[in-house]
């Protein structure tokens, strides 16, 4: 075994300050690849790392490899708008996302790594009568599922977020909003780094720059993978490859109902604190929050075609900016600093697939589409359970691949607050 | 953002068009006889290829006519535009070195192709 990582504290900070912060040990090892593992996770983003972490922590497996074609957290984990909430309509989704939210609440303490989880509230704004009914329905559904949710009328929206434009004369006036106070944001990189450090400390090998090129199957059982760094054997393989899930599935002839599309986001120049919550609107399609650095973080919609290029059309960005400027006229002269796209795996019912497959020992965790970040810890928790026991956890049982044949879809389009 | 050469109107911005998804999926001729799995296959399952994909496009903010496109989804490069009802063309673009690798030019994703100069 390797050296245990030092615990981060004010004392370790002080001690390292004395040597000009030049002697911090690496947060995780760069191990050499073994030829055999108890389990292999394909994909070193948030979902893959949490899966490895909980496999080690909850299920006692320690000989685990996480193989990542790029670098840790360099995919969609570093390309989202960091919003965390659990105010989903259907019971199945509410269970999954609320479980994740509860894990977020203790994450920094558990990992001894500050993920900057900030429960600043998420407000979903209604602009017409249909929105009001839809959001009130969701508000009641959330309350029945023990998820905190409030309804705010226009005046209360203005009190909660004073800079929002509540004039009745705008094209899509603010008629009210739901508010989940426990929702908020977190630092996306820190989540990947924190879980990577935690998993590494329990002996998980994190292999970066290692792309999977094939999956070996014998008599219906998975036996290992081929990678750009050689063959690795294992009879348990979990795929958490987000936008590239279909690429992996096509290697073994598994059919997935997924389309990979670019989802764009952008951040503004940093300004002083102005927006202390997250504002989302389904109807005019905008979501915006302010990062701790002061940048406005703005999420756009998906581009309407398959692409793996991690960039999209400017018309999508323009639509989103128009919506943001109507809600917040004071942002109209702000300059945008950076803009990027991530490849999201869209499922027909906008719910994830966390499932066994017809190949024994091969598991898929995909289809999170535009909203996977908020579920990061919960996703890993239930996926680890599925891999360790060859049986789904009660929370992810409804999210199996067979639902596309049985018709038991978990339709969260629109109900999930932002339709893409 | 890319340009699409509509066979009826000429080159226009992609924003004028709507993508109708994977092409050459034939509606089953015997709907009552299909099993749930076969329906699932027809309705939901998609190849979602990284590389050359055949797909349907509609010039929705223009002439509103449909046509087929062969496009490399790793670069957004359009290789061929052909009529509805035609068989997919036999074309090959620059193949990726590895299944989920990145092309040298044309992708925003540099995670595997970037080499430090």
TrEMBL record, chain B:
InterPro entries linked: SoxD, SoxD_sf
GO BP annotations, alphabetical order: tetrahydrofolate metabolic process
UniProt cross-references to Gene3D superfamilies, sorted A to Z: Folate-binding superfamily
Biased composition (Polar residues): 108-117
Record-level Gene Ontology MF annotations: sarcosine oxidase activity
Region (Disordered): 86-117
NCBIfam families, sorted: soxD (TIGR01374)
Protein name in the entry: Sarcosine oxidase subunit delta
Organism name: marine metagenome
């Amino acid at each position: 075994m390797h050296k245990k990582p030092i615990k981060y504290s004010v004392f370790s900070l002080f001690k390292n300050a004395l040597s000009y912060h030049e002697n911090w040990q690496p947060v995780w090892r760069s191990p050499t690849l073994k030829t055999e593992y108890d389990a292999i996770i394909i994909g070193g983003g948030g979902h893959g790392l949490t899966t490895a972490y909980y496999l080690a922590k909850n299920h006692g497996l320690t000989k685990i490899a996480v193989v990542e074609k790029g670098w840790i957290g360099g995919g969609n984990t570093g390309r989202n708008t960091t919003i965390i909430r659990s105010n989903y309509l259907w019971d199945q989704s509410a269970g999954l996302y609320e479980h994740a939210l509860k894990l977020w609440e203790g994450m920094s303490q558990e990992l001894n790594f500050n993920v900057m989880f900030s429960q600043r509230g998420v407000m979903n704004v209604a602009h017409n009568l249909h929105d009001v009914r839809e959001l009130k329905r969701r508000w009641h559904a959330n309350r029945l599922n023990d998820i905190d949710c409030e309804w705010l009328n226009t005046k209360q929206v203005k009190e909660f977020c004073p800079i929002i434009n509540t004039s009745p004369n705008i094209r899509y006036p603010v008629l009210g909003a739901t508010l989940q106070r426990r929702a908020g944001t977190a630092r996306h990189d820190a989540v990947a780094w924190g879980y990577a450090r935690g998993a590494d400390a329990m002996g998980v090998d994190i292999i970066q720059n290692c792309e999977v090129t094939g999956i070996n199957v014998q008599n219906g059982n998975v036996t290992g993978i081929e990678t750009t760094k050689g063959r690795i054997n294992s009879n348990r393989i979990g795929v958490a490859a987000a936008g590239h899930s279909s690429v992996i599935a096509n290697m073994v002839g598994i059919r997935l109902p997924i389309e990979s599309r670019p989802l764009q986001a952008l951040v503004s120049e940093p300004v002083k604190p102005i927006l202390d919550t997250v504002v989302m609107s389904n109807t005019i399609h905008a979501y915006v929050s302010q990062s701790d650095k002061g940048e406005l973080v703005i999420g756009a919609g998906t581009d309407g075609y398959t692409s793996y290029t991690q960039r999209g059309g400017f018309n999508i960005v323009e639509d989103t900016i128009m919506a943001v400027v109507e809600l917040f006229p004071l942002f109209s002269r702000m300059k945008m600093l950076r803009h990027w796209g991530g490849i999201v795996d869209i499922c027909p019912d906008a719910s994830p697939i966390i499932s066994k497959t017809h190949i024994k020992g091969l598991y898929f965790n995909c289809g999170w589409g535009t909203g996977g970040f908020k579920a990061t810890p919960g996703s890993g928790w239930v996926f680890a359970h599925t891999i360790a026991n060859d049986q789904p956890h009660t929370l992810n049982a409804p999210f199996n691949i067979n639902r596309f044949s049985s018709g038991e879809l978990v339709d969260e389009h629109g109900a999930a607050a932002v339709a893409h | 953002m890319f340009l699409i050469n509509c066979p009826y109107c000429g080159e226009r911005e992609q924003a004028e068009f709507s993508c109708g998804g994977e092409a050459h999926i034939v509606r089953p001729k015997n709907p009552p006889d299909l099993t749930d799995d076969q329906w699932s296959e027809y309705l939901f399952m998609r190849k979602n290829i990284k590389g050359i994909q055949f797909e349907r496009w509609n010039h929705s903010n223009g002439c509103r006519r449909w046509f087929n496109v062969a496009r490399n989804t790793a670069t957004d490069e359009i290789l061929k535009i052909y009529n509805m009802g035609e068989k997919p063309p036999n074309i090959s673009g620059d193949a990726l070195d590895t299944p989920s690798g990145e092309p040298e030019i044309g992708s925003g994703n540099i995670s595997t192709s970037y080499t430090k100069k």
